[in-house]
User: What shape does this take?
Amino acid sequence: MTKDFPKIIDSANALGLAVIVSTNGLVLNPDRLAEFSNVRWHVSVDSGLAEIHEKSRQLPVHKPSFGSLEKTSRFLLRCAELGVPCRVLTCVGTHNREALFLLGERLALLGVTDWNISKVLRAGRAQKDYEQLWSVSEESMKEQISDLRRCFSFMRIRYSNRTEQQGYFLLLLPDGSLATQHTDGRDKVRLGDPLQMTLADLENHPDFDLRSHGRKWIAAELEMPGMDGLGMGSYGDPLPAMRA
Assistant: This one.
């Protein structure tokens, strides 16, 4: 949305940061993807059905985003054509939990090879009417993920269920402070000023679980089998090799 976005990306790369851009694939012209280097794109897609995807892409106070599924699809296709690292993110709720296979077919035709399906945290706007809008059977999800992996074996399909874990994420708020995410009604819990905190401060903070935060990244890279019965997901206690 800002004209000097490529320069911002270049500055982040120059600092040695791993740069990931999360987008709905609507604002940036796909033809501009070639301007960006060393970037992984995370693109939100909710359904292979236009009416479901487009309704969920807007807040209730706005009009539905007509044509957004096709625009996002063109963005994904261009990523595949250029060989640009890209991962599709899908949050599951009552509106789309029964149509994941149809979305998988669309993603396969677009050349997507990395797909992350996750439950929604009981946080932020999702706290309102959570059971009605976002509650999904864990057994049903695991069965669907297993079927999807068999049908689209060329695609890396992850399933994340961290809805009950506390202090799992490390966030940087707009005011510059560090925070973590809780799902017990407190939502985003402030941890302190990053310019005045040490790693030891984080490790000992009662509202942040540094070990779980680290295991998230280790498990994602190793994709170790048996951690949730599907190979990926709720990342329980580390295996002996990980403890070592």
User: Anything to note?
Assistant: The first strand starts at residue 19 and ends at 23. The chain is about 35% helix and 15% strand. Residues 68-82 form the longest helix (15 residues).
